[in-house]
From TrEMBL:
Highest taxon listed in the record's lineage: Bacteria
This protein's record includes keyword Metal-binding: no
Keyword presence, tRNA processing: no
Protein name stated in the entry: Alpha/beta hydrolase
Membrane-spanning residues: none
Pfam families in the cross-refs: Abhydrolase_1
Gene3D superfamilies the record matches: alpha/beta hydrolase
Sequence ranges assigned to domain AB hydrolase-1 in this UniProt record: 27-144
């Protein structure tokens, strides 16, 4: 565990070296989502498996989240993209890295690939989409609703009853984040990349969606928008694919990196699993 002061922001960073002690096959940066998410989601699901496969694994808490500093303002998408770029620069990661982004973390990854394409070798986006007008409008509604509801004890009691005490604690923390910062108003006001800027994202992209997710319809649009993109679906899952189907996500990620030319120190990996294989592994 480390804390780095970059650009006036104290950041919590976790870095896992290849477990066999050899040189890393590549660097993978794991970018988490908004509000109830943090690097812990990766630490307990994907990160250690990638280190076992011989990868240099970088995880960090985004601004306002986890153990990273929580400024009152500075929460537009471009600030999060700047944070990722500053982290890579601060750690002297000058070559292209592989990005795995969960939910809003994928939107940050797309933002970096559009702005600094030479820094990104590939993107695996889990339940995510690039920023657009429809994305901004949707986030506006979600964040306004959360800002109102997550400070109500009746709401938190319902979450505890339906989802458990741990999820209720995350919801309470998210409510404090929204109450203490301008995040709910700044995210929808972010600078949005144009279509030409998004189409310039030339790195390989794999987008992963749950079949029951409200984002699953993004697949066809994303496939048509990006020059080197395809999508895959995890049967029976909604938005929380990473934490609800971690084995499937690990399998997909390792297969994807192998396909992108990363020489993993795991047994040889087959091509990306088929829909039937994913369905079997999700059971």
């Amino acid at each position: 565990m480390a804390f780095l002061d970059l650009g006036g922001l104290r950041r919590h960073v976790q870095r896992l070296a290849p477990q066999d002690g050899g040189p890393p096959a590549a660097t993978v940066v794991l970018v988490h989502g908004l509000l109830t998410d943090s690097l812990a989601s990766y630490y307990f699901t994907l990160g250690p498996a990638l280190a076992t496969a011989g990868l240099d694994v970088l995880m960090y808490d985004q601004r306002g989240h986890g153990r990273t500093a929580r400024p009152a303002t500075g929460y537009r998408l471009e600030h999060f993209v700047d944070d990722l770029a500053a982290l890579l620069d601060g750690l002297d990661l000058t070559g292209p890295v592989h990005l795995v982004g969960n939910s809003f973390g994928g939107t940050v990854a797309f933002g970096l690939a559009a702005r600094r394409p030479a820094r990104v070798a590939s993107i695996l986006a889990i339940e995510s989409e690039p920023a657009s007008r429809s994305w901004a409008a949707k986030l506006d509604g979600i964040l306004r609703h959360a800002e109102h509801e997550l400070v109500r004890e009746t709401t938190l009691a319902w979450v505890a009853e339906q989802r458990g005490a741990h999820t209720a604690r995350l919801a309470r923390s998210a409510g404090r984040l929204l109450a203490q910062t301008s995040l709910a108003r700044e995210i929808p006001a972010s600078r949005l990349p144009g279509g030409a800027e998004l189409r310039s994202i030339s790195c390989p992209v794999l987008a992963v969606y749950g079949t029951d997710s409200d984002l699953a319809h993004q697949a066809a649009w994303l496939d048509g928008l990006l020059p080197d993109c395809r999508t895959t679906f995890v049967p029976g899952q909604e938005h929380s694919v990473l934490v609800e189907a971690p084995y499937t996500v690990r399998k997909l990620t390792l297969s994807w990196l192998h396909e992108c030319g990363v020489r993993l120190r795991e047994p040889a990996h087959a091509p990306l699993p088929t829909g039937r294989e994913l369905e079997d592994s999700a059971r």
